[in-house]
Write a structure and sequence with these properties.
This protein is 0% helix and 39% strand. It is mainly β and 85 residues long. Strands 3-4-5-6 form a 4-stranded antiparallel sheet, with no helix packed on it.
Length: 85
Amino acid sequence: WSELWRVDVDGGGLRQLTRGRNQDGSPSVSPDGERILFTSSRGGSSQLWSLPVHGGEAVQLSDFAPGVSDPVWSRDGTKLAVVSE
């Protein structure tokens, strides 16, 4: 299993963002710094999820049968890209 954690640049402020028996990874912070895209295996194959940086529930954004990887934001934060077979 893997989880996402947030830590300040100075090494303080350690906070766990995800938990559970999932593979969470490939985090990507939105251009405005308000959301984190990440992949997670919760529910089966690896899908794209979004999580508010300051806390809250993750929301599933994709449902591709083979799964997704490598999420990125567009420069203006209005579009997302992922890799899928």
